[in-house]
Amino acid sequence: MMRPILRLLAVTVLLGTGAWWAAAGTHRGWSKNSVEVRTLDEVTGIEQITYEDRFVPGVDTVAIASAAAAVLAGMSFAFGRARKSAAS
Amino acid sequence: MHQSRLTTTPARLLAVALLACPLAATAAEQTFDFKDPKGVNNATFKLDAPLETITGSASGVSGTLTIDRDKPAATKGVIVIAAPSLHVENAAMKEHLHGKDWIDSATHPEIKFTVNGLSDFKMEGDTATATVAGKFSLKGVEKAVSVPAKVTLLPGLLAKRTNGKMEGDLLVIRSTFTIKRSDYGINPAAPTDKVADEIEISLAIAGASPKK
User: Fold this and answer.
1) Dihedral pair phi/psi, residue B193, rounded to 5°
2) B40 close contact with A: CB closer than 8 A
3) Which of A1, B132, B136, B138 is least surrounded by CB atoms within 10 angstroms?
4) Do A48 and B42 touch (CB under 8 A)?
5) Do A51 and B89 touch (CB under 8 A)?
6) Can you give the residue ranges of every domain in chain B?
7) Is A53 on the interface with B (CB under 8 A)?
8) What are the per-10-residue average pLDDT scores of chain A (88 residues)?
């Protein structure tokens, strides 16, 4: 029972993170904790730069999710082997 | 001055006044203050390495410049950027940036550009281009630099910027130049395929000169 659950969880984590990363703009750098906002100052023509606190997943988030999915998938094989040993 | 001209009382008084006040500003001199409570003034930086591009900005700008419109080459002053105001979008990277191996903002809280003069001065309407000679100081290391700049005078627009509270002029300066982080002891051991040695710095700042 655990085996398919763990594998489903692994696929969910991998695909879910991939979808999140794609929806957030497939940012190929490190994850961001704040995002730049530029506002034009009409008097001087200078763009004011401020930052909005917002998390944007980057390649490190995808890498962590991939590693987590691999661990879950690996655990699923261990559960399968244990059940076969118990049955015999 | 010819001796005969000094015998007249007004000329003698003027000569005495000028001799007594050697640092008095001439009529063509104007001092602009770049401290900006609204935080519009900024400097951005970019390190473009083969494996990674790092960008960020700083908003803690201050300093003054004194410009003589009759002698622009004699422009002098200093622009200061508060090192703790440097920001990158990744929190862990920002912590490293301010650490001892990188800009060490706790020990060296100011990044300075000291202006010693202008050359190659060209006017195009209210905008001038020039080469700015000076010294750039970062992480306790000071080096002579010569960078291009575009300077725009906005006469009378200080009132618009301060919602009518102050009358005066604005001076907008834009400049983009490159330094090498290894020249300033900024983690010279960091691999250049991940953190470029060249740092492109762009300044976009406006100074205010209130009418007295």
Assistant:
1) -80, -15
2) yes
3) A1
4) yes
5) yes
6) 25-210
7) no
8) 91 96 93 96 96 95 96 86 51
